[in-house]
Amino acid sequence: MVVGIDFEQEKSLPDPQNKEERDSSRSRTRWPYSFTSQRLIMISVIFLIFIGTFLFSSIRNPSILRKKLCDTISNGYQCEPKISHNWGQYSPYFAVESEISPDLPSNCEITFAQVLSRHGARDPTASKTVTYAKLIQKIKTTVTEYKGDYAFLKDYNYNLGADQLTAFGEQQMVNSGIEFFNRYQHLATHFPLFVRTASQNRVVVSAQKFNQGYHQARRAATGSDPISYPYNISIISEDAGQNNTLSHGLCMAFETRSPYNNTGPSAQKTYQDIFLPPLTARINANLPPISLTASETISFLDLCSFDTVASPTGDISPFCGLFTEIEWKQYSYFQSLGKFYGFGPGNALGPTQGVGYVNELVARLTGTAVNDHTSVNHTLDDESPPSTFPVGNAYPLFADFSHDNDMTSVFAALGLFATNHSLSNTTQENAVQAGGYSAAWTVPFAARAYFEKMRCVTDDKEELVRAVVNGRVVTLQGCGADSEGRCKLSNFINSLSFAKSGGRWADC
What we know:
- There is one protein chain.
- The chain is of the alpha/beta class.
- The chain contains 19 helices and 10 strands.
- 40% of the residues lie in helices and 10% in strands.
- Strands 3, 4, 5, 6, 7, 8, 9 and 10 form an 8-stranded mixed β-sheet that branches. It has a two-stranded antiparallel ribbon with strand order 1-2.
- The longest helix has 28 residues, at 33-60.
- The protein is globular and about 70 Å long.
- 42% of the residues are buried.
């Protein structure tokens, strides 16, 4: 809305700073009362019009307020949610709506909490950044006309890096650390936090930034921190051949043999052949005479997220406006298929990649030694004294940092998103239809899964276990969960027979 204001009216008012007017009117007290009132009223009206115009424009154009509202500690990324919450694993973390309140149930207290976190938003991987750069170069050298919303590409220069956290991703992890402290403050003010991470730089930096936020919140709450900062971090090597529950790589059949290593891409290929052709045709029509391939169209979609998280404040990229909400949902489903069939329940060896971590979770929940013959690093987990894998009442708080693929396998090994069917690779299913599963809901940038143990005032004194994934309570399966999605500790442990037996590690 444009408001016209005639500032010429003010020229008729006496100006005490003007010499000629000052001579004729020595002081403001000698101005006529009605004239002074008119001036004050006019200034007030102009001020109110300005404020009204700003607020109206803010409603019509949220970008005015975006820098303050896009990413928050409690709710994550909330700008253009109908778009940004449908970028699959490339979505920035957002709090997923929960059918069960994620708040602490009444008459209960948390006695144990563990977060399994994905690293924060990053630049594309090294191979992908080369692919994207080539796409932009192809556009620059081929296109002769940039139509409509595609006009920005004429002056767009590709300058994304490779593999490292962006400034936006670093802040995500600071926010995550603050949130974790605030949620478990009653434990965090009395007990140390034990932190582990896979060794890739973006994961290590994510752990460091999480610690920074956690420390910041702790100092704000207590006024001091008796624990030395920076906190110690146990870094587990991701080098080839290294046992590591936070990074897959040991199961060679899964890594190198068909069908295990191509189940995900195969499912995606079937679906992309259905939903991509209209998108490719539209891009080609708006950027003549270019002729994009299907994979290049996927790159176009990818760039929406990567260009957004390259902005320190997460400003929505112009790439995002090139596609409709329906098309973003299709893209998100495409990414979900890749995770489900690549590393989750849709891959015969997918869940097995997560059993080592589940067995470590069992050890921490029960205060016992780790019992596992798969990917656990026993050099670290069995150390005495247990400085690299402590268990027992003295350590009720843990934070582990990993990758989206590994988290997908852990969730599958836990049976968190058990469905009665495999995801269709021809017909789109939403997350609710898929038992609460989608890549965007489970493993976005800076994803966080909380595993909680709580003691409640009931007739049964046994502790209860609960899982909260990105703000959504996920009802535990196969252990007689109550209306709050929780299971008794013993029942939960007994339900994990797949992991405790090593899954299908013998097939690796």
